[in-house]
Amino acid sequence: MSLSRQLLRKTPTAQTLNAPFRSISTGGAVVKGHHNHQNNHEFLPPNDYLNSWTTPKNPKEAEAKLARLRREYAKKVKEVRKEYIEEMEVMRIEKIRKDEAKKEAQRIANEERKVAKAAEKKAKAKEREAAEEEFRKTLLKERQEKLEYWRMREKNFAEKKKEKNNLLRRQSSMWIDEKDLEQKSAEAIAVGVQL
Prior knowledge:
The protein is an all-alpha fold. Helix content is 74%, strand content 0%. The protein is rod-shaped.
């Protein structure tokens, strides 16, 4: 059995009837600002259907009046539903419009981002191309310097070799053949000529 049923079924005793009332409120705190709805709330005008029934003397007249009230009520409900449907349609169209605007804004942002990315990519490609060209030029210059160094070295080596060969030819003109070697050596011993 729920607590509310127990409370409803309990009969008040003399002690509970004589007990002083205790307030649960915070001691009469004044509500300020936007929480004070009761003072600034605008109520709708009173409904003409509420308390409009007066009991007619004739039952047929009562039925006709009740049918008329039902028809009027059905018309009012139909109008309210129509207004509600129109409001919902307006809200749906507004939501669709906002969604489309949001999608369009996202699409434009994506396109701008893609364009910026492409421009950045192009700039990086140009930068990379310039760096590669600079590297290629530097490499070509180094190769030319190495080639020039190698040619100079080869030239120096060839000149030294030529000098050596010339020196060797000059010295070899003084050399003696093998067949004449014994005779010359004998003459040198006898005459004392240097070889």
